[in-house]
Amino acid sequence: MHLLSRAALRGGLFSRRTWSQDGQRQFWGWLNAVFNKVDHERIKAVGPDRAAAEWLTRCGAKVRFHGFDRWQHDYNGLPTGPLGRFKIQGIDSTDSCIMFKGFEHLDGLQHLEEIRLNRSMYIEDACLERIGSIESLQASVLKMEVVSCGNVTDKGIIALHKLRSLERLFLSDLPGVVDKEKTVERLQTALPGLDIELDLV
Fold first, then answer.
1. Count of H helices and E strands in the chain?
2. Average pLDDT along the chain, 201 residues, taken 10 residues at a time
3. CATH superfamily of 6-199
4. Which are the contacts of 124, defined by CB distance < 8 A and separation ≥ 6?
């Protein structure tokens, strides 16, 4: 099955200028929600890593599999092989449309070490709280970036304190984080070995 990219859709029928801005916004919101829908039967059929990779690339994010240096961004180019062969080690959501309803795909990931949440308009506190609540991610995630996600507040950042293996956290351009000193202090108290890099106004 081939999946049309959002860019391809925008360049075709759905980009007609006769659409109102509200109509376009509603259409893309609906389409993004469809892309984020969790298919439990698909997860059972192909395994959590493959299903998560399909979700992420469908939404414009990238994945890196264990043992590979290259980031995969093409839904139709995801590697195939025996069930469970490819394990997700990194996620880069830069400029993607991943949203909270799709984060259930992360539940079965056992090898995820790096998460980049950059310029993702649907990322909110609930997404970070979900990441922090998943036991396998609490043990595996080593590095995180949260950059230019306008819906993230102190509450969401503090929720990352449950990621007990987290070694490095980069935070930048987060206007919703208003009490950065207190937030950083709470994280450092919970995770004394965490290296936090800030670029917050």
1. 8, 6
2. 47 46 58 85 95 96 96 94 91 96 96 97 97 98 98 98 98 96 96 95 73
3. Ribonuclease Inhibitor (3.80.10.10)
4. 100, 149, 151, 152, 156
Q: Which residues contact 13 (CB under 8 A, 6 or more apart)?
A: none
- Token pair of 182 as six digits: 């207190």
Three-state SS at 17: coil
3-state secondary structure string, 109-131?
Answer: CCCCCEEEEECCCCCEHHHHHHH
Locate all alpha helices (DSSP H) within the chain, ordered by sequence: 6-11, 21-35, 40-46, 48-58, 125-133, 135-140, 154-158, 180-190
- Measured distance CA(127)–CA(150) in Å, rounded: 13
Query: Measured between alpha carbons, how far is 30 from 92 in angstroms, rounded to an integer?
Result: 23
The domain limits of the chain are 6-199
State the sign of the Cα–Cα–Cα–Cα dihedral 62, 65, 70, 76.
negative
Q: How many CB atoms neighbour CB 200 within 10 A?
A: 14
